[in-house]
Each structure stands twice: as structure tokens, then as C-alpha cells.
């Protein structure tokens, strides 16, 4: 390459460098690449923070006793075993306890959908005295931690009575603790676990539905109950699915009310999981806490499976309901 060609190339590069369009395009591509890298780092970091503990628990559930004390083992066991799952399965009485738990959370969920959807529909469509004040009380139940009212709740259900009638008849108030009855009663009267949030979700969803649907039903002779059940609730399926998923997941994982009301551990799977390590150490004579902890990891994995199945089955409707109910953004 002679000096003349070098000068030609230099002149072209210099022209490109001073070309505004070229600089703008190059800057845009660099910005796009940097943004893509930044986005990938954020997603990978958040995924690691959220999924890291879960992956660690699932990995440890397959560890054998020799893997626990082998310093070279990390995440992948050298001698994988299913013994931890056998212990967890037996000590949790898995299928029996899961059956009780599913009956409990499905019943609570159906009651919450019925009660909260009716209350939300009333707030969205009807005008009545003290409407704003009552809806403000609903909002307070969302933001007020349950721990604030735990002592009144405990005392109330330890000596439960209705206007003194039970004490007048039997001589003493009823003790509803050590059972699921307090949760059924609270849910039935719209004060169950996260009922305030569910009322808010239904209210927002019903406000987004056009009133022409109800007006057309009334013109055709439909009454308020038929209009609500057959038309409005049928059109609120995304909100119903959202509330159903939230309710089932939160009821399934709830330990606060289970401990507060001293519910039977044989009826609540997650509550029984909290006693699994002590059960394994006592019943299987496993005195090493690091070994008995492996059965807890296996138990956690077993407890996660039903809720993952529910979520992935209803994922499409769940996302749609979140978008249309206005609880995000």
C-alpha cells in the first residue's frame, strides 16, 4: 500500500468520523448493547436471588450423609439418595395431610371468592350511606398488620360467644381454638386472610366492566341476583382466578393463623413441615442435625410441588387478572 492509498483511507475514515448520521447510528448501537448487557445482569441477578435458595434446597434434598461432610461437594451430590424423600414422605404422612390441607384451602378459597366478590360488586356498582367510610375500613384491613390484632383475635375465639347466648345455654363460652373454625368464621364475614385485598381486586375489576351489560340484563327481565351470578361474575373470571391463586397460595403457606389458633398439625401440611426435623430426630433416631436437616429439604420440595402445579396451570388467567384488576402500575 503506497502513501496515496493511505491518504485516501485516512480521508474516508475522517469523513465517517465527522458524519453526524454515522455517529448517531453508532452511538445508538452502543447504547442498545449497553442496555442489553445491563438488563441481562439485572435479570440474572434477580433470578439468582429468588431461585438460588430454592435450587440450593432441591440440591441438598438429594445429599447423602457422606456428601454433607465432604468439603469438595457443592450443589451436585457425589452419592445422591432418595432416603431423605422417603423419611419426609413417611413422617409428613404426605398424601393424607395434603388431602386435609387441600380440602381446607379450597373451602376457604371458595368462601372468599363468594363473599369478597359480592362485597366488591356492591362497592363498585351501588351507592349507599357511609360507602366511602366502609371502603376506607377495607383499605385499613389491607395495610394493618395482622399482628396488631392477634391478641384480641385469640381472646375472642378462646371465649367465643354470640350476645351471651352460648354462655346462657351451656354455662360457658365456646372455645374454638385447636381447630380451623376461627378461619372459616373470619372468612365467612369478609375478614379472613387478605380478604380486604380481594375485595379491592373485585371492586376494581367490576368498575372496569361496562354498565351496559347489566342494563341489557335488567331490560331482559333479569333480577339482581341472576345478573350478578350469571352475568357479572361470569365476566369476572380473570379476577376470580387471580383471587383463587392468591388465596390458595397464601392459605397454603400461612403459619401465622395456624399457630395463633393452634390448628392441628395433621391437617396443615406447612405447619406439619415445621415439626419434621424434630419428628425425624425422635422417630428415626437421627441425632445429627445436619443429617435430619436433609429430610427437611426434601419435605420443603414436596410441599412446593402442589403450589407450583396450581400456579403453572392457572398462570395465563392469573397474569390477565392482575393486569385488568389494576393492582399493579
Describe the fold and architecture.
With 329 residues, the protein is mainly alpha-helical. It is built from 18 helices and no strands. The model has no long low-confidence stretch (mean pLDDT 85).
Rg over CA atoms, rounded to whole Å, is: 29 Å
The shape, in one word, is flat
Please give the largest β-sheet.
none
Q: Structural class per helix/strand content?
A: mainly alpha
- Looking at how many chains there are and whether they match, the oligomeric state comes to single chain
Strand content: under 5%
Helix content: over 70%
Average pLDDT level:
85
SSE string, helices as H and strands as E = HHHHHHHHHHHHHHHHHH
Keywords:
mainly alpha, 18 helices, 329 residues
Describe the secondary-structure layout.
Blueprint: H1 3-18, H2 20-60, H3 65-68, H4 83-92, H5 94-125, H6 131-143, H7 150-158, H8 165-170, H9 181-188, H10 195-208, H11 212-219, H12 224-235, H13 237-253, H14 256-260, H15 269-273, H16 276-283, H17 289-313, H18 315-325
